[in-house]
């Protein structure tokens, strides 16, 4: 191996070492056994592969194809391992991706980009909200941008790399849309890559969105959402700088309970201003070092992301957003705008790293290194509570034995399950200090009906599931759960709220444990199946995406140096 | 032996990081104290979050 080759290998290994250190520092508590169950993050021992996870018949496809991917992988790996791989990959790939993408002339600049992108308020807040699928999109974006640059410059193998990166992002609808927007903005060019390559790239990334688009087309939930969600999920101020200041620093998530406490520091806005100044100094460097026009396009994408993220708090724009969410199917994707900040976060980090390099170039040795090392440490110093599982908030727990018992009973006599009390998020004594979306739908080998009403503070955001609405109305009409059309009813003890007394008429108790009680409904036959409307269309969407991804992976494997 | 200006810069970088670190940790302590006296999550388990 040549000296240059050895240096490059050493640099790459160094970046992976930095990424490994960051991943371990954040996820250290996950060395303990169990499952981290927080907000939207649920992993179970073995997630079954069911139709309603590929295409929810009564609900919007918010976890499509994420649930189907987990279910497929669950056939070969346990849930606890999948969770650790998913979370570890999100941090590791974010760090390495940003480090490789930044067109740096110094090793320390790459380290600044790695630490800067893997240690952002955005990552911390979405991790605490349990949105691991979105974090995979966050991690995929630098790789996607690198591949898009490769497509524009005619690099061999760039298109399949773009497809693989976009596939990782498209594990959630939001990530899929971001991947498509990034491709639309970055790839097309007058001469290079040419119309055929451009169309191939756009078509492939659009096809990766097919699973959730097909599922959305066949669900009976419609696609319109409660406009109250705009106020509930609008960006939130975290300190004296308000929501726009929080967004500028890549924070500003709507939920105060998933915001790291350090974001309230009086000095955070000053750090944000400093970062923006560095980024302003670094942007011309990015423009100079990247192929013609790419930096400007990324800048446009970043500004667009910031505008969308702040739409919910801008007077006038928020009204328009409310109308969109209420009237336009699918526009509900925009109500939690802060999650769309990903391109802004990447652009900010890349430019700030290059700004740091530019600043260091004006200083003699070893003062230049001192400043760069200080900037490497800055993200961790300003956001110390991301370390060690976000200050101990990522805590693995075990499911009580009752869950396994109920799973076995339902598996022996499968049929639709109603989860009571009717509430979407639950707090359990065995999972202290947090709420989590009801894990039963992913735990049991049958369709589970849960509530889809979201409560944010005093705001009640109505869900889209008509079936749940009908079931909720049963007690008021004097009907029992036996008329709800489900085979099983599970009561989760310890959750707030209690079903009315007459609710149990006609049901047979089958299991009564400290955590769960299971009732059988003899009025519904065991072979009752969930609605089958349009499920083949949804499956077609998933297969289309799989074929595109498989073709891309095949093309990469045929190349001697794939990545 | 590092030059005085280099030592001065090292001191400035270290001091800035130390001040930022202390400022970032201060809200953590406040929140810990609040949490000790606050059982809001336990009382409202079905709430997705609070603004």
Verbal overview:
The complex is a heterodimer of chains A (563) and B (51). Chain A is an alpha+beta fold. In chain A, 54% of the residues lie in helices and 7% in strands. Chain A has 23 helices and 11 strands. In chain A, strands 6-3-9-11-10 form a 5-stranded mixed sheet. Chain A has a two-stranded antiparallel ribbon with strand order 1-2. Chain A has a two-stranded antiparallel ribbon with strand order 4-5. In chain A, a hairpin with a 2-residue loop joins strand 4 (425-428) and strand 5. In chain A, helix 1 packs parallel to helix 5 (107-118), helix 8 (158-169) packs parallel to helix 10 and helix 14 packs across helix 17 (342-360). Chain A starts with a helix and ends in a 6-residue tail after the last helix. With 51 residues, chain B is mainly α. Chain B contains 2 helices and no strands. Chain B has helices at residues 4-36, 40-43. Chain A binds chain B through residues 39, 129, 232, 236, 254-258, 261-268, 271, 366-367, 370-371, 373-374, 377-378, 381-385, 391, 423-427, 433-435, 454-457, 495-497, and chain B through 2, 5-6, 9-10, 13-14, 16-17, 19-21, 23-28, 30-31, 41-42, 44-51.
List keywords for this structure.
heterodimer, A: 563 residues, alpha+beta, 5-stranded mixed beta sheet, two-stranded antiparallel ribbon, 23 helices, 11 strands, B: 51 residues, mainly alpha, 2 helices
Number of strands of chain B: 0
Structural class computed from helices and strand pairing of chain B: mainly alpha
Average pLDDT reading of chain B: 78
Largest interface: A-B, 47 and 30 residues
Which range best describes the helical content of chain B: under 10%, 10-25%, 25-40%, 40-55%, 55-70% or over 70%?
over 70%
Q: What share of the residues of chain A lie within helices?
A: 40-55%
Q: So what's the oligomer here?
A: heterodimer
């Amino acid at each position: 191996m040549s000296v240059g080759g050895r240096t490059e290998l050493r640099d790459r290994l160094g970046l992976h070492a930095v990424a490994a250190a960051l991943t371990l520092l954040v996820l250290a508590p996950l060395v303990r056994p169990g499952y981290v169950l927080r907000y939207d993050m649920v992993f179970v021992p073995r997630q079954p592969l069911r139709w309603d996870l590929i295409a929810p018949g009564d609900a919007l496809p918010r976890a499509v194809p994420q649930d189907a991917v987990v279910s497929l992988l669950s056939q070969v790996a346990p849930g606890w391992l999948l969770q650790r791989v998913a979370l570890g990959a999100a941090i590791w790939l974010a760090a390495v991706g940003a480090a490789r993408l930044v067109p740096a002339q110094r090793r320390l600049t790459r380290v600044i980009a790695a630490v800067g992108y893997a240690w952002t308020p955005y990552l911390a807040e979405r991790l605490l909200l349990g949105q691991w699928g979105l974090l995979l999109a966050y991690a995929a974006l630098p790789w996607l941008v690198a591949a898009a640059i490769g497509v524009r410059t005619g690099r061999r193998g760039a298109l399949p790399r773009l497809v693989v990166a976009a596939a990782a992002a498209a594990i959630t609808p939001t990530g899929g849309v971001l991947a498509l927007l990034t491709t639309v903005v970055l790839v097309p060019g007058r001469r290079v890559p040419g119309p055929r390559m451009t169309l191939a790239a756009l078509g492939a990334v659009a096809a990766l969105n097919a699973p959730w688009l097909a599922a959305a087309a066949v669900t009976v939930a419609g696609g319109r959402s409660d406009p109250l969600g705009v106020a509930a999920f609008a960006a939130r101020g975290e300190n004296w700088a308000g929501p726009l200041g929080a967004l500028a620093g890549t924070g500003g998530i709507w939920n105060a309970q998933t915001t790291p406490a350090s974001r309230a520091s009086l000095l955070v806005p000053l750090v944000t201003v400093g970062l923006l100044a560095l980024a302003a100094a670094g942007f011309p460097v990015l423009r100079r070092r990247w192929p013609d026009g790419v930096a400007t396009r990324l800048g446009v994408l970043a500004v667009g992301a910031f505008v969308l993220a702040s739409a919910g708090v801008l007077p006038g724009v928020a009204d328009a957003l409310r109308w969109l969410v209420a009237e336009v199917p699918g526009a509900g994707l925009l109500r939690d705008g802060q999650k769309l900040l990903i391109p802004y976060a990447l652009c900010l980090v890349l430019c700030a790293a290059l700004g740091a390099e530019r600043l260091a170039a004006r200083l003699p040795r070893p003062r230049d290194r001192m400043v760069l090392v200080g900037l490497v440490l800055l993200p961790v110093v300003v956001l110390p509570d991301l370390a060690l599982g976000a200050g101990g908030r990522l805590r693995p727990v075990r499911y009580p034995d009752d869950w396994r018992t109920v799973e076995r009973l339902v598996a022996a006599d499968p049929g639709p399950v109603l989860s009571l009390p009717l509430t979407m998020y639950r707090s359990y004594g065995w999972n202290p200090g947090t709420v989590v979306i009801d894990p039963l739908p992913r735990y049991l080998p049958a369709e589970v009906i849960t509530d889809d009403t979201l409560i944010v503070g005093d705001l009640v955001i109505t869900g889209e599931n008509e079936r749940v609405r009908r079931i909720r109305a049963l007690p008021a009409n004097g009907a029992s759960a036996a008329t709800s059309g489900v085979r099983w009813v599970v009561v989760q003890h310890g959750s707030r709220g209690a079903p009315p007394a007459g609710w149990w008429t006609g049901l047979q108790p089958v299991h009564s444990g400290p955590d769960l009680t299971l009732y059988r409904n003899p009025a519904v036959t065991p072979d009752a199946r969930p609605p089958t409307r349009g499920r083949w269309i949804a499956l077609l969407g998933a297969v289309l995406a799989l074929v595109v991804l498989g073709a891309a992976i095949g093309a990469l494997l045929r190349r001697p140096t794939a990545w | 032996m590092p030059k005085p200006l280099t030592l001065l810069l090292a001191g400035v970088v270290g001091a800035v990081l130390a001040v930022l670190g202390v400022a970032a940790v201060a809200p953590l302590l406040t929140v810990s104290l609040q949490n000790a006296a606050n059982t809001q999550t336990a009382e409202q388990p079905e709430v997705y979050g609070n603004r």
